[in-house]
Amino acid sequence: MCLCPSTQRFETSSNRPAATALLRCDAGPLEDLKIADGAADWEVAGAYGTGYLAVRQLAERFGEADVLAFMKALTHDRMSIDDASREVFGEPWSVLNEQCVAAIRAAAA
Q1: What's the pLDDT at 41?
Q2: What residues make up the domain containing 44?
Q3: What sign has the CA pseudo-torsion 106, 82, 89, 75?
Q4: What digits encode the pLDDT tens for the residues 37-73?
Q5: Which tens digit of pLDDT belongs to each residue from 61-70?
Q6: Phi-psi domain of 4 (left: phi exceeds 0; alpha: psi -120 through 50; beta: other)
Q7: Which percentage of the chain shows pLDDT scores above 70?
Q8: What domain count does the chain have?
């Protein structure tokens, strides 16, 4: 997880959502956001909050049925994230990832 100065101060001085602190780190693609063993509570909360916002963004744009089909393609069919994205959403994951990150950052601001 990122330990940039804004996140180091989060636990004691900020009342913003954990996702906000996590996203200020510019952590990169959503699929790189992983919860490490021994992660701080705010990191876990931030990762789950970010995941929720990403799924909500996809559901608002494509509908819940397509999000479920995407998750099935990833978990049951073991497709790569890009292949699943192209098959279900009709767009490469790199494009959707950028759009999701932008929407999440805007929602967390």
Answers
A1: 84
A2: 5-108
A3: negative
A4: 888 887 788 888 888 888 988 999 999 999 999 999 9
A5: 999 999 999 9
A6: beta
A7: 67
A8: 1
Please tell me which residue, 88 or 14, carries the higher pLDDT value.
88
Q: Is 92 helix (H, G, I), strand (E, B) or coil?
A: coil
Confirm whether pTM is higher than 0.85: no
- Rounded CA-CA distance 109/97 in Å is 18
- Torsion of Cα atoms, 3 then 11 then 20 then 52, to 10°: 100
Q: What is the CA angle 54-35-44, rounded to 5? A: 75
Contact, 6 vs 24, CB < 8 A? yes
Average pLDDT over the chain reads: 76
DSSP 42-83: HHHHHHHHHHHHHHHHHHHHH-HHHHHHHHHHHHTS---HHH
Structure tokens at 87: 């098959």
**Residue 67 and residue 55: Cα distance in Å, rounded?**
7
